[in-house]
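User: Please predict structures.

Assistant: First:
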Amino acid sequence: MQPHAKRKILIFDGDAVRLAVLAMLLEREGFDVMRADSGDAIGSDSLPTAWVPDVVMADLQLPGLRGTELADRISSRWPHATKIALSATPADCTDGYSRILRKPLPPENLRDLLFDESSEQDSSTWHHGKQGSDFDNGDASKVLDHEVFAKLEKRLPPEALELLYRTMLSDSRQRLDAIQAAFASGDRKTMRSEAQRLAGSARLTGAVHLRHASESIAIRHESTSSFRQQLRQLERELDRLSQTLAGKFS
């Protein structure tokens, strides 16, 4: 699924690693992204006058101009842009921003926020490849798509690449916990929703088998015993991915 008309996103963040990771995630989804490492950039010539962002994402702890003052300047320069605050801690004041996102940002949070998706979206808009248990018949060694990893490794500094995958693993563990809790309570809708988001994150980072295991839960309408088996498979694939990445970042 591609953003409507190549939406333009401007990111203000003073952390170079986080800025690179966030920009990379958005660019991989088809957005036109520009970056600024200080709020003072809004008054400089570093941002082209002809480039008008649809969305501005700003760290509340930026060097230079920040917070409400930055939001006011954004509104003055780009009155129609949606303003989103980024913060690692609860913020005292987010006046001028439409919402706040906590850092670090899981990849699917960005899609949820910036794609115009409905909760009932058709699975064909995000699903690729094999479904269900079919992936067990494929290349059992391909826990991680090395072509995807190589592309990310080429585009990101080592610390940013590691941050991306550690964030992805942490989020995947949280999604797995949510799926297991939903299974225990009989909430199939939440199971599929969380599995769909996990699959999207796995696709973004080339986690082949984790993606397939997630998709088997998100797409198929199975019996309770089949779901239980799929949950075990999902947990195994996440463990295998963790071990693979541990070897790469040790």
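Second:
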Amino acid sequence: MSETVSAWQLIASGDATLFAIVRLSLAVSLSAVAIALVVGLPLGAMLALMRFPGRSAVVVVLNGFMGLPPVVVGLTVYLLLSRSGPLGELGLLFTPTAMVIAQALLVLPIIAALTRQTVEDLWLEYREELTAMGVGPAGQVATLLWDSRFSLVTALLAGFGRAAAEVGTVMIVGGNIDGFTRTMTTTIALETSKGNLPLAMGLGLILIFLILLINAAAWGVRLWSEQRAG
């Protein structure tokens, strides 16, 4: 009980260490989602519209990567960025940039796969109209992405939720360095093992609040889009 009170006190007092960790976590996760958004939305849309040999296999692999083990992503990025890896000369390992790359790779399949499904469903409805109007592939992608923007917000929020709650990936490539690469989830794991429960619980409360806020935003956007459509 005393740990819970201390956790709330840390939050209420604006503890500098706690909120520095929160800021870094949000910066890393938001950056990763932004990168995954730029790549995943057009990738998913093009995959929904294009027909080519092996497309079904690509879709299966993409959907399977939605459940890709985070530690595998972390290990892959670690090997790429380590000194003996192909990108080792960049010196990115154990930096926030490495954490952004790892989280972006983790979130990308989620956004791309959900975008593909959403756009493919919409394409069945708009195909004849867009074809009759002579809209090219790029225009089709842009039109369908815009018309499905409210549905795609849910995909983006799901990606952010996955990134914000991640531990293993950022632990491997970030190193959990105090004041530099320590995020909410890695700090919770570390401080719990050290017995520093107030800080761990304070970060846990903030993380739960963020996840609830994300889900509330997704529900609100969906409800608003349904009301507009109605």
